[in-house]
Amino acid sequence: MAEEINTQELGEKIVTVLKTIYDPEIPVDIYELGLIYDVMVSTDHDVKILMTLTTPNCPVAESLPMEVEEKVKSLDIVKDCEVEITFDPPWNQDLISEEAKLELGLL
């Protein structure tokens, strides 16, 4: 029988990992920056992350999704991780958390 999985608990662990990944041009992690649109966790321990970038021409467009995938896969309970990039809706400063806006001097 397959091991029971608490998808909410795993989701929280994934968010903790995502908060260790920073945009190289902005001193804020990608989660607080609003780049993560959705984290989907299956009962098979597979994870799919829907994320965006600050711009389509982002200099880390190649490396950032790979870093997200690798760091999430580093969690023992995660079997596989897929990162999908979308620009719909386009990222804007309204997606930044209040905490990050304060840190960036936007409040």
Concise description?
By secondary structure, this protein is α+β, with helices and mostly antiparallel strands. Helices cover 28% and strands 17% of the residues. The chain has a 3-stranded mixed β-sheet, covered by helices on one side.
Describe the structure.
A 3-stranded mixed sheet has the order 1-2-3, with helices on one face. A hairpin with a 4-residue loop joins strand 1 and strand 2. The protein has helices at residues 7-18, 63-73, 98-104, and strands at 36-41, 46-51, 80-85. Helix content is 28%, strand content 17%. It is α+β, with helices and mostly antiparallel strands and 107 residues long. The model has no long low-confidence stretch (mean pLDDT 91).
Query: What assembly state would you assign to the polypeptide chains in this entry?
Result: single chain
Helix % is 25-40%
Per the principal axes of the C-alpha atoms, what is the gross shape?
globular
* Structural class determined from secondary elements: alpha+beta
Please summarize the sheet with the most strands.
3 strands, mixed
Mean pLDDT: 91
